[in-house]
Design a protein that fits this description.
By secondary structure, the protein is mainly alpha-helical. The protein contains 9 helices and 2 strands; from the N terminus they run ααααββααααα.
Length: about 260
């Protein structure tokens, strides 16, 4: 009897899921899935940099936990937003007009998130460069509570999640593809979070570069919300070029230290 119940349940599950996975036999759907996965991973870089920098301010014992909680919250938030996708799509409808631009709820959320990022990055840059406050740096002794870090991560998760879901809607109409892409992208973020955070913590010069990225991303969000769309390719090309230059600087510094050690 148990086998029959289990078999019936499995059949019901298959019948329920079948309409949502009819795309498996469509090659164009697989191309859309791969493209969306890559796009979601790239869009997640912004969120990952913020999480890595913010959690490095926590006591070392709490950092990994905060990253897991923050990224898990991002996954839950995006899945919930996908479940209410009809509402999310309506967020692009203008609710009022000012300065010749129709502002939607998405625009207002992007502007608020951009302002928060600009404020946060500017504050941390000040902590890093102020010679009278040199201990209060991202890699110094300033620490925040775990709850405070998670709260700030959740705020940016909301902004990046809405932008991510709206991007997904523009790529495909298949809700299953959107779910798979989001789950894969957030899983990659989970795997990359700790190595990225450790790399930033070991290289203080990277902190300033990452804060500059956050400042640029914040300004981009504000511009997007104001109706001035900046192609994401330009942003990531600038970030990639800056990272390449900093990588060459790090390589040069390491070579100089090696030569200095050999001479002594």
């Amino acid at each position: 009897m148990l086998w029959i119940v289990e078999g019936t349940t499995s059949m019901q599950l298959v019948e329920f899921l079948a309409p949502h996975f009819h795309f498996v036999s469509d090659p164009t759907a697989w191309v859309a899935l791969l493209t969306l996965v890559v796009l979601e991973i790239v869009l997640g870089i912004d969120n990952l940099i913020f999480i890595s920098i913010l959690t490095n301010k926590l006591p070392e014992a709490q950092r990994a936990r905060a990253r897991r909680l923050g990224i898990s919250a991002a996954l839950v938030m995006r899945l919930v937003l996908l479940a209410t996708i009809s509402i999310i799509v309506q967020l692009t409808t203008p609710v009022f007009t000012a300065f010749g631009h129709g502002f939607s709820w998405r625009d207002l959320i992007l502007i608020a998130g951009g302002l928060f990022l600009v404020w946060k990055a500017t504050k941390e840059i000040h902590h890093t460069v102020d010679p009278q406050d040199h201990q209060d740096t991202m890699v110094g002794t300033l620490q925040m509570s775990l709850a405070g870090a998670i709260f700030q991560i959740l705020l940016l998760d909301l902004v990046f999640s809405i932008d991510s879901i709206i991007t997904a809607v523009g790529m495909t109409d298949e809700i299953a593809i959107m779910y798979i892409a989001v789950i894969v992208a957030v899983s990659v973020m989970m795997l990359a979070a700790t190595p990225l955070a450790n790399f930033i913590a070991r290289n203080p010069s990277i902190v300033m570069l990452a804060l500059g990225f956050l400042l640029m991303i914040g300004m981009t969000l504000i511009a997007d919300g104001m109706g001035y769309h900046v192609p994401k390719g330009y942003i990531y090309a600038a970030m990639g070029f800056s990272a390449l230059v900093e990588g060459l600087n790090m390589l040069a510094r390491n070579r100089r230290r090696q030569r200095s050690g050999d001479e002594h």
